[in-house]
Design brief:
The complex is a heterodimer of chains A (473) and B (337). Chain A has 473 residues and is α+β, with helices and mostly antiparallel strands. Helices cover 29% and strands 21% of the residues of chain A. In chain A, helix 3 packs parallel to helix 4, helix 10 packs across helix 11 and helix 10 crosses helix 13. Chain B has 337 residues and is α/β, with parallel strands linked by helices. Chain B folds into two domains: 192 residues, Thiamin diphosphate (ThDP)-binding fold, Pyr/PP domains (Rossmann fold), CATH 3.40.50.970; 128 residues, Rossmann fold.
Chain lengths: 473, 337
């Protein structure tokens, strides 16, 4: 009996629900050995290579590269040795049931929900099988955009689904603003006037009775009423010179990264009850110490690196903030894995400085440099971004005074860092002095962390920043 | 003001005009209502009761029963008009204009033009039209779109007793041929009618029956009432509808429609005739041609399907535009993405 094995969409990390084949590195019929690269799979967070775990032949590739996202557990390919017959392979595919059917079952492209996700090579992702009348262009667009056509009423002849129907389904729901009904001016009152003329008359308090109409069939038309409206525009010649152009938008659909950012942040902002704690810290000592410490350690650690270190130390002292929230479970961590928000060319990414509490400043600086370089090159891997117990988002270098960040689930809190600025303060003897201060805002998931817990954490953080020698203990 | 039924507005206006002008005569099938029966003239009354009492008041020279021949009725009316009378001809069912189409289309509608304006043909041809009576494919049709497409005719579709009085008086006094379409389902509706014996509504003036700035609904005849019901329902949601009663489809009050569409940016046309080459399509095209930049959504037409009118009651009600279908079309343009 030949050994036939399925190759399914892997699950990398607790949040991964689907992935996309970016590239196949084997073709149907290729033999490979353990350790060979099989394909590149793109997830919501990363693109990763998949290595062969055993020697076999790629007998059947069911999901082509560059298609739509497949759910975790979906059958992607079938590997076997050369001894297996094609009939055996076909039977294996027909009998295959994804391990996680709850995730893998696709409602849109399968006529009977009980059918396996992919029963044959022809059932490619995005392919819509339907008996409903639909125009070829509409079908193409629906397949490209992965639209569930069972939800669409066809507006074409005999209920045929048209391209416009699909375009309507793709666009976001309209939110029209209504002006409501208006007072009806009695008709047959001895004069005839167009609805617009009546509206303008009502707006300007003009009595239409007795006005001679110049419109069709002697009717009072818009022009007749406008002639009676007191001429205001003459006093404003500037308005005449400024001609409005049609200010038309250039419409671009969300790309993959943007879609993911939109989905994750919407989920976070909608599902997590955020509250915000603000504090201002003095950084004069930290700035002074940084010069010396960087010299001693022979590194170029930024203020942000020191903040990562301070935050990590504060987190280990406040384990109730160093958490992840998973459904009804709280996961506490012994060490602080700190996600730092980085603006990459592709969009916002959050690589992680792992166990920052155990690192020296120069190690943190090297690690953040490495991660930022990787992010700029678009080469961050799963190991760089998966997990994290806390996030820091710093817009201080862009002059932002202070802001509120959205929590990066499943984490329980995020620190938003503003710019350092010189501010007048009352000195010990009632005079005025200047200090360099930094505004911090902690966004907290109230399901997991209470106000007092968040405040205590911020208090510790403030102390660590204002007395930075403690960072080197 | 007097409260009366739509059909009584027809009779009283004809009677008043016959009183005023001795040239006004009435002719049609069974307009006397019982001639030749045991009870004698007026014993039974006409099928729609739209000539009740006229024979008794004005006699056989001015109220003329005709054979069952639409070509004879319309042909005789054309001759009477050319000879200086003002005939008011009645066709029991608008569906039967087919047999009198040459008289209407090639004769009545063309005389004034072909004789260089030296003659006139002041005929009024009244007809009962419309579905909703389980009367099947040959007795339920709306023919206004055929007649509106014929230059030389004026086409009137009153929706209330007051409009019947004002528009029918205008039709009788008008020097051009007028097709006067009365919806069967409206005959028993009531409304206030002005007492003024000279109350006329000039042709080509649409009536705004509901005012609002979010969507324009254009209709006429029976379906206007459905549109008003929809507008009232939507007003409770803060959605304002301009409801326009066309009154006459020829001449057409383009300005009323375009002015309203320029304000609302959305148009729904509701018509009882089938969709192809119809009034609803014509008005949607009007908005697309002349108010394109104001449109926020494609104009929608609510019409029956392109089929003969079914006999079965369930099928007939599925065939006709309903308040639900109108509301769906209105919501479609309101929620256009």
């Amino acid at each position: 009996m030949a050994e036939i094995r399925p190759f399914c969409m892997p699950k990398w990390g607790i949040e991964m629900t689907e992935g996309t084949i970016a590239t196949w590195m084997v073709k149907e019929g290729d033999a490979f050995t353990k350790g060979d690269m099989l394909c590149l799979i793109e997830t919501a967070k990363i693109t990763n290579e998949v290595e062969a775990e055993y020697d076999a032949v790629a007998r059947r590739i069911l999901v082509p590269a560059g298609g739509d996202a497949e759910p975790v557990g979906a059958l992607l390919a079938v590997f076997a040795d050369a001894a297996a017959s094609d009939a055996e392979i076909d039977a294996f595919i027909a009998d295959f049931r994804p391990a996680e059917t709850g995730v893998a079952a696709r409602s849109s492209d399968s006529e009977s929900p009980s059918a396996p996700a992919h029963t044959s090579a022809s059932a490619r992702p995005g392919r819509i099988a339907t008996n409903r009348p639909i125009s070829p262009e509409a079908l193409k667009l629906a397949e490209r955009e992965n639209i569930d056509i069972s939800q669409i009423d066809g507006s074409g002849r005999n209920g045929r689904i048209t391209l416009q129907d699909i375009q309507q389904a793709i666009r976001p729901t309209a939110k029209p603003v209504f002006k409501g009904s208006a007072q009806l001016v009695e008709d047959n009152a001895g004069f005839f006037a167009s609805p617009l003329a009546r509206r303008i008359a009502a707006l300007h308090g003009i009595d239409l009775a007795g006005i001679k109409g110049t419109g069709p069939r002697g009717r009072i038309s818009r022009a007749d009423v406008q002639a009676l409206v007191s001429p205001v525009p003459a006093a404003r010649p500037v308005a005449a010179e400024f001609a409005l152009n049609p200010n038309l938008p250039e419409i671009k659909p969300f790309d993959r990264i943007r879609k993911i950012i939109a989905q994750r942040l919407t989920d976070a902002k909608q599902q997590i009850p955020h509250f915000y704690l603000r504090i201002s810290v003095r950084v004069d000592e930290l700035l002074a110490l940084r010069k010396t410490a960087n010299l001693v350690l022979n590194c170029k650690a930024s203020i942000n690196d020191y903040l990562v270190k301070a935050t990590a130390l504060a987190l280990v002292r406040h384990p109730d903030v160093n958490i992840q929230v998973h459904g009804n479970e709280l996961h506490h961590f012994p060490h602080a894995d700190i996600s730092i928000a980085v603006a990459s060319p592709k969009g916002l990414v959050t690589p992680i400085v792992r166990q920052a509490d155990r690192m020296r400043i120069d190690q943190i600086a090297a690690e953040t440099r490495r991660l930022i370089d990787k992010a700029q090159a678009g080469r961050l891997g799963l190991e760089d971004m998966n997990g994290g117990t806390f996030s820091i988002s710093n817009l201080g270098m862009m002059g932002i005074e202070q802001f509120d960040a959205i929590i990066n689930p499943p984490q329980g809190a995020i620190l938003a860092v503003g710019t350092a600025s010189r501010q007048p303060v009352e000195t010990a003897h009632g005079g005025i002095g200047f200090e360099t201060r930094l505004a911090l805002t902690l966004s907290v998931d109230h399901r997991a962390i209470d106000g007092a817990g968040g405040a205590a954490f911020l208090g510790t953080l403030k102390q660590l920043i204002e007395e930075p020698e403690a960072l080197f203990v | 003001m007097a409260k009366m039924m739509y059909r009584d507005a027809v009779v009283s206006t004809i009677a008043a005009e016959m009183e005023r002008d001795p040239n006004v005569v009435v002719l049609g099938e069974d307009v006397v209502g019982g001639m030749g029966t045991a009870g004698g003239p007026e014993a039974i009354g006409g099928i729609w009761s739209t000539s009740t009492g006229l024979y008794g008041r004005f006699g056989q020279d001015r109220v003329i029963d005709t054979p069952i021949s639409e070509s004879a009725i319309v042909g005789a009316a054309a001759g009477l008009a050319l000879a200086g009378k003002r005939p008011v001809a009645e066709l029991m069912f608008a569906d039967f204009i087919g047999v009198s189409l040459d008289q209407i289309w090639n004769q009545i509608g063309k005389f004034r033009y072909m004789f260089g304006g030296k003659t006139k043909c002041p005929v009024v041809i009244r007809m009962a039209y419309g579905a909703g009576f389980n009367a099947a494919a040959q007795h339920s049709q709306s023919v206004h779109q055929i007649l509106t497409g014929m230059p030389g005719l004026k086409v009137v579709m009153p929706s209330t007793p007051a409009d019947v009085a004002g528009l029918l008086r205008q039709a009788i006094r008008d020097d051009d041929p007028v097709i006067f379409l009365e919806h069967k389902a409206l005959y028993a509706t009531t409304g206030e009618v002005p007492d003024d014996p000279d109350f006329v509504i000039p042709f080509g003036h649409a009536r705004l029956t509901r005012a609002g700035e979010d969507v324009t609904i254009v209709s006429s005849g029976l379906l206007l009432g459905f549109c008003e019901a929809v507008a009232d329902r939507l007003a409770n949601e803060g959605i304002g509808c301009d409801v326009i009663d066309l009154r006459t489809t020829s001449p057409l009050d383009e300005e009323a429609i375009l002015d309203s569409v320029e304000v609302t940016g959305r148009l729904v046309v509701v018509d009882e005739a089938p969709p192809r080459c119809g009034l609803a399509a014509d008005l949607c095209a009007l908005a697309a041609n002349k108010a394109f930049s104001s449109l926020k959504a494609p104009p929608q037409a609510v019409t029956p399907p392109h089929t003969p009118i079914p006999f079965a009651r369930e099928l007939e009600s599925a065939y006709l535009p309903s308040a639900e279908k109108i509301e769906a079309a209105v919501r479609k343009v309101l929620n256009w993405r």
